[in-house]
Specification:
Blueprint (H helix, E strand, L loop, with lengths): L2 H23 L3 H4 L1 H14 L8 H12 L11 H21 L24 H16 L3 H24 L3 H7 L10
Helix pairs in contact: 1-3, 4-7, 5-6, 6-7
Length: 186
């Protein structure tokens, strides 16, 4: 196994443990969902494709995004925001599983994935993650949680731009799938 894959496996196994501890400390559905998410990420590091090219600066952004806390998780959330957040979680997991062996934290070319949901928007995993995390932020809305969420948006936009420059075949994919993150907007 490649050294980077071992590190990714260790990092996300540790993240799974932290998510489990956070779920125990502040039990809520949204907090507990971080456990299977991180577990899937750790497993993908065991099986992922080797990169053809990569962007190491993007690695740091990805790690910051993965570690970025959304402050404390409230037990209470309005049902409409819960549904919104859970929809984001489902999109995030679906996108992640569709990426499969092409997944990575650093922007890299491990093969282009264009099947649904990647034929609706080019970065559905980021869209799902932002929707999911918004539910966490909204459930305990503070100035700090808002600042961290805006920082997460900025990091994900930077990662999107880096990824689009590095993956082979992207120009054709861009023509076929117009929107990066939000249909009709960007």
């Amino acid at each position: 196994m490649h050294f980077g894959n071992r590190l990714g496996f260790i990092f996300f196994s540790f993240s799974t443990t932290l998510a489990l501890l956070a779920g125990i400390k502040s039990p809520s559905l949204l907090a507990w969902l971080a456990v299977p998410h991180n577990l899937i990420l750790s497993v993908l590091y065991l099986v992922r494709n080797e990169e053809k090219t990569s962007n190491r600066n993007g690695l740091w952004l990805g790690l910051i995004a993965a570690l970025l806390p959304m402050t404390s998780y409230s037990k209470g959330i309005h049902p409409a925001w819960l549904v919104f957040s859970l929809s984001g979680y489902v999109l995030m997991i679906w996108s992640l599983l569709r990426l499969g062996k092409s997944f990575g934290i650093a922007p890299a070319d491990r093969g282009l994935v264009t099947q649904t949901p990647y034929n609706v928007v080019r970065h559905p995993m980021y869209l799902g993650e932002l929707a999911y995390r918004w539910g966490l932020v909204y459930s305990s809305l503070t100035p700090l949680s808002m600042i961290l969420f805006v920082l997460l948006i900025g990091i994900q936009v930077a990662r999107i731009i880096m990824e689009e420059k590095i993956i082979s075949g992207y120009t054709e994919y861009q023509s076929a799938t117009r929107w990066r993150l939000l249909p009709g907007i960007w």
